[in-house]
Here is the input.
Amino acid sequence: MALIEIDNLSVTFDAGDRYVHAVQGVSLTVHARESFGLVGESGSGKSTILRAICGLAPISGGAIRIDGKPLQTPRGFDFARRVQMVFQDPYASLHPRHTIDRTLAEPLAIHRIGDTDRRVVQALRDVGLDPSFRFRYPHQLSGGQRQRVAIARALMLEPEILLLDEPTSALDASVQAETLNLLSRLRAERGLTFLMVSHDLAVIDHMCDRILVMQHGRAVEELDRDQLAAGAMKTGYARTLFNASADRMLDG
Amino acid sequence: MTLLSVKDLYVTFRTESGIVEAVRGVSFDLGRERLGIVGESGSGKTMTGRSVLRLIRPPGRIDAVEMTFDGIDLLKISERQMRALRGKRIAMVMQDPKYSLNPVMRVGEQLTEGLRRRDGLRGAELHRKAIAALEAVQIRDPERVLRAYPHELSGGMGQRVMIAMMLIPQPDLLIADEPTSALDVTVQAEVLSILDGLVRDRGMGLIFISHDLRLVGRFCDRVLVMYKGRVVEELEAKHLMQAQHPYTQGLLNCLPRIGGDRGPLPGLDRAAAWAG
Here is the structure.
């Protein structure tokens, strides 16, 4: 059975004088331990889907089910234990005046989970950071180190689903490689389910089993990995994205 | 014909913990062509670009054996003469629209500031030029964008506004610092073709600074690969895949590819002696 089911989802923002239809009638299913990718340009609604799952965007139609059960509003503790999100910009998503220790310990405190000391140190080790980073502030870390902290934070409650919103687009190529390798390793070790957003088709292809191409808030085409590698897309828009993808550039 | 000639450029910062050399002995010549400078954060590529416009603030200092633009010695001329070159003859597109656009000024005002102050344009003529500049970078509703504040624009829009602004005075040399990293691939392709057209049709020189080796390889004529302030390899872009230097090869190999195998991506060996 599908772990994440999104059924005809619509998200509409009220911008005062008009309505912005960020997501219009998108459906998708992600199976347990699967890695599913959402690709599209800015404004295509891909990040909004992740935010809607977390209750950060106003759902105006359709339904989201995790493990067959509709989501509660507000999302609540159980949801946080199962689903966590890693945001795009590690410069903006970590509290600048909280130490790494405080950032990582906060979910434990909220959920009244003890053993904070050991868990924080272990979390740092799991993402390949030395425990000496524990009492530093985000500004004392590089972009790649910060994104590792953001991943560690998302994993503190041992969720089964990670929502990844452009987790490497703010990073250098070599740091991106390290971060993608880290995510792949954690997924294999913990049996995580990924729902990942990226504008980079090569990154999505590397990380995901199936992808959904989006444009202007609508689903354009769903592809599996073989279809993508073979360039077997049916819609013109998916082909445009494929042809414009940076990694195709040297083959041309 | 050589438009810009840089020989043995050093950019140093005197800090409390000693002297930091951001750029160490960089030399290159630029004709009316597209030169790519590639490297990771901290490799000195942005500092190299800024040095050409003498935009390094104290305690940073620029030293070079030669830095000549179109017969003008950039090391010797006064700050006043330098200001006359900036924007009009040498323009730079900065990396981040969030920090490079004035947050409390409407886009239209800052876009047309040069036209008003330098060229004395007013009214309908000014408006027409501003609209044309935005249309040239494929902005679909230029009227709305002119009235907007920078925070009301997406990153990609802001980036295009900056490019439009820099291209209005028709500079001879454009230094573009990661001009397309905030853009979607299809918009990126559009912006690149705009820049490409300017190099081809107007004979503009372009220095294209980027961390994306594949993009630079596709778009530029020549590529300088920088690491820790030095140029480790210079090569024709079309020979990029035959790069000899281990750092260049490492940068190419650590990128995922569509249809590639999904094993761990190779990391970059930064400990090697060539960092010197």
User: Anything to note?
Assistant: The mean pLDDT of chain A is 91.
